[in-house]
Amino acid sequence: MAEKQESGTVAVLDIGKTNIKLNAVTGDGAVLETLSVENPVRDGPPWRHHDLQVVRGWLLEGLAQLARRHPLEAFVASGHGSGGVLVLEHPDMGDGTALPMIDYEQPLPEPVRVAYGPLSGTFFDRGSATMHGATHQARQLYWMQQAEPEAFARARWFLGVPQYWAWVLSGVAVSETSLLGAQSHLWNVAEKRWSPIVARQGWEHLLPPFAKAWETVGPVRPELSKRHGLPQGLRILAGGHDSSLNYYRYQAAGLTDVAVVSTGTWIVGLSGCTPLARLDENRGMTCNSDVFGNPLGGVLTMGGREFAVIAGDAADANVGRETIARLVGRGTMALPSFGHDDGLFPGSAGAGRFTGPPPETPQERKALGVLYCALLTVECLDALGESAQVLLDGSFLREPLYPALVAAFARERRVRFNLDAYGVASGAALLASHETRTEPAPVVLSEPEGPGAFASELSSYASRWRRAARAVKPDQTKGAMHGRN
Length: 485
Hints:
CATH topology of the largest domain: Nucleotidyltransferase, domain 5
Oligomer: single chain
Helix content: 25-40%
Number of helices: 17
């Protein structure tokens, strides 16, 4: 029997803070091939910035490679919400930028930080608390406007990073709601309007018309097609925010009333069922947007970084149920927060500490990290409110006990998980068939194992941990994360 011929393949550019991936993905979301490169950063001047010229060369070469091996039909980019690019009139004017793309993890100049706060508006104007460094596209725009007024005046558009790459390939500039709704501080998702800072600073002319994430903004520019051997007429889609595209994967599968928790450096929870009144910026909550422009309740906490602190050099140790049971039985706990952000526990930044008998082996260190992250996940779910279904995905699922512990700690919910490691790429590729899809997109979900004989012990442990975590007195515990371990 002849194999089914590949057709309708989508090239997905997935732009992370540290790494960039270019994927060939089938129309129903299966990843066929991945190319990757580090996201290059230069120290300056005028600030630490991403080297978009290097990335452009790599992208065009990579697209040409994929086009020789796959029948590419469309291109779509995804990216994090803290990436914005101020550009000139045409993408071939150098790298197209009016000013270099700011690396959002660097500190702000103090005058910019102080002046920006009063301009940023209400919680819903911002969509989040004001976060660290140069996070938030509006704050980056403000910094550029203050520091480089002449170059700023020559700019034509300000684009989210996925839309920058759509513009590079098609020449068409658009805005998109899921990217702007990812704490850009430019777009009020709840009221579907620009935040007041846009008019106050005179930025309206820099923000192009909106397109839906799945819309074809144009074909690939003919000169790029000819020069780099790209398919003529390759559709360039508007693209969107990475977490929102991962969420769209489940929307495309017909799943409703769900809370999706994706794990990695950040634990990111999203739910379309969360009432806006429930969102609390002091507990790491956000107001995001799905690709349809509708509000998504969100919650962010840097669980991956905290796991690394708790587990230390034991991250590769094998952890069994007996190790978890031993820690639970002894009452050994890790209490927040082991990072520089408060996360879900106001005032807890840098106050992370251990209580009870300390972990004695590498296996116990890692097991304590897994316990801690499972408990953080349940805190995210509780913050988002009631959802009939919980869907887990991301890197934490490399540890089989993680979904089982989440299910044990959230026994009133149905918890399932997805082992696909390319959720963003899959969701992005599904955009290409959004307007023609007639059946739900496929997705494989698994059920975690039950907690076994020590279910009641886990429940009691979770209750004690929650009381202790919420009772943290930061002024008494600052620096405790550097204490006994």
